[in-house]
Amino acid sequence: MKKFTLSAxxxxxxxxxxxxxxxxxxxxxxxxxxxxxxxxxxxPDYIDVDEVISxxxxxxxxxxxxxxxxxxxxxxxxxxxxxxxxxTVDGSEGKSCASCHTGGPEEFAGLRAELxxxxxxxxxxxxxEDYINLSRVEHMGAEPWKWAKPRMDAMVALISLQSRGxxxxxxxxxxxxxxxxxxxxxxxxxVGQLDMACSNCHEDNYGVMIRADHLSQGQINGFPxxxxxxxxxxxxxxxxxxxxxxxxxxxxxxxxDEFRALELYVASRGNGLSxxxxxxxx
Length: 282
Ligand code: HEC
Ligand code: HEC
Fold this sequence. Notes:
This protein has 282 residues and is an alpha+beta fold. The chain has 11 helices and 11 strands. Helix 3 (75-86) crosses helix 7 and helix 8 (177-187) packs across helix 11. The radius of gyration is 19 Å and the shape is globular. Residues 55, 58, 196, 198, 200-202, 210, 213, 215-216, 218-220, 222, 225, 239-240, 243-244, 246-247, 262, 266, 281 line the site of one heme C.
């Protein structure tokens, strides 16, 4: 079970927001159109919780329901838009994604579960956005898409969907180890006027109500997420940015080395959960 070990400052901050507790869902499995999604799994040994839990479990029944059927999931509209982009010729080479990836987006089944990951040929840790832009720039002769913008987020969702239900399996060792370490450091570093770290909310206090929001573990297995709040898909970096603003810290830039490191680390905290994207959150 989770333990409440709060520093006085953090306890005071949380207390300002705290309201009535509400129960989180105990289901271990969510089924979407016959596909099984693991909502709870034994935590990897390098993190300080017993169990990793999908953010879905902390949402209200109404929000949860939207993700239980693809016809109700508003994120799927954006997946459809990405299918149009998939088939649209762009750039100096006169090609669309479909020209080369003839097996369709299904070719990328399994990819989302491993990202971010070290890529030997590129000599760096690659995110989904990097792969999409690599193809756009190097293979299509097209402009790269901006991160955390609708076209990019939609394509990330389309490709992520191909891995839905597969266990997140992000490597934390090998050539990515230093970056992972940097991400871990960021996760535990207090920042902003509220002087809080990601861990203060998402590790020490998940399950607690903060304002009207039920705190989750801040997992990213469900990304991109469709948020009811802004009625669009949200990327991991956009969400990290929002959380930093909420604690009145100056967020790192979308696509920055800091957020890349944080994404690698946070992704690894979800090893064992299923790829869920595009998920629905408030
Ligand atoms: C001209 C051919 C070509 C086109 C067009 C193309 N790609 Fe690629 N793509 C490749 C090749 C080749 C690779 C293998 C990595 C490399 O050598 O760059 C690749 C790799 C990828 C990967 C990583 C796959 C993996 O398993 O590592 C993704 C994701 C991807 N492409 C997405 C896209 C998307 C989305 C589009 C359209 C916006 C697109 N590609 C257009 C040739 C292409
Ligand atoms: C003051 C508490 C607080 C801090 C500190 C905080 N967050 Fe959050 N975060 C929230 C709340 C509230 C939500 C929305 C409810 C939920 O999913 O927990 C949220 C949501 C998230 C989500 C979405 C989870 C999902 O399932 O969709 C991610 C990812 C996340 N936070 C990551 C981070 C990271 C990384 C940091 C550190 C840079 C951070 N948060 C710092 C309060 C916080």
